[in-house]
Amino acid sequence: MPLSTISPLDGRYANKVKELSAYVSESALIRYRVMVEVEYVIALGEEKGVKELKRLSPKAKSELRSLYKKFSEADAEAIKQIELEINHDVKAVEYFIKQKYPSEFIHFALTSEDVNNLAYSLMWRDALRDSIAPTLNHLHKTLTACAKRHKNQPMLSLTHGQPATPTTVGKEFAVFAARLKRQVDQLKTHRLLGKLNGATGTYGAMVVAYPNVNWQNFSKKFVESFGFDWNPLTTQIEPHDSLAESFYILSRVNTIFLDFTRDTWLYISRGIFGQKKKDGEVGSSTMPHKINPIQFENAEGNLGLANALLLHLAEKLPMSRMQRDLTDSTVLRNIGVPLGHSLLAYKSILSGLSRLVVSKQRLNEELEDHWEVLAEPIQTVLRKVGHEKPYEKLKELTRGTTITKKDIQNFIKKLDIPEEEKNKLLKLTPHNYTGIADILAARF
Question: Coil, helix or strand for 441?
Answer without folding.
Answer: helix
